[in-house]
User: Which sequence fits this backbone?
């Protein structure tokens, strides 16, 4: 069973980033779109991008913003199970949510790159490309032994 996590992150005025990552936090797909598009619709964009490219994908973990009709859409359109990771009811303060930290860690890795720390790009497609380039650099650097 393949696993993935998708979530939104960068709360830059005018843009949202949606990532699909594997269990290690390595990038499978990215979509950057204007902020006036709902998170659920942004998730559809990133999932449509990989629908025929990841045949072993079976389960996707997502945060609570991706609940509702999106769960049925993912099952019907892609044949995958979308499982939301929610905060426990009644608990205040920081709570480590299982599997949610994977994509948050990936966003932290990406934000270490100066070009991605702020939204410098004019086009969303250039932002997507810069994220892919940063992940290629990150994965290449980790593949070489010290």
Assistant:
């Amino acid at each position: 069973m393949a696993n993935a996590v998708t979530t939104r992150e960068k709360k830059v005025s005018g843009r949202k980033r949606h990532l699909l990552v594997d269990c290690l936090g390595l990038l499978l797909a990215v979509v950057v779109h204007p902020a006036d598009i709902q998170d659920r619709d942004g998730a559809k964009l990133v999932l449509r991008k990989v629908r025929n490219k990841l045949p072993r994908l079976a389960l996707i973990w997502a945060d609570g913003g991706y609940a509702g009709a999106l769960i049925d859409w993912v099952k019907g359109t892609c044949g995958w199970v979308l499982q939301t990771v929610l905060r426990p009811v009644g608990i205040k303060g920081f709570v480590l949510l299982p599997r949610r930290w994977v994509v948050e860690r990936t966003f932290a890795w990406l934000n270490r790159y100066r070009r991605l720390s702020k939204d410098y790009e004019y086009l969303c497609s250039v932002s997507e490309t810069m994220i892919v380039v940063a992940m290629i650099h990150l994965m290449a650097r980790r593949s070489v032994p010290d």
Q: What stands out?
A: The chain has one domain: 2-143. The first strand starts at residue 2 and ends at 8. The mean pLDDT is 85. The radius of gyration is 15 Å.
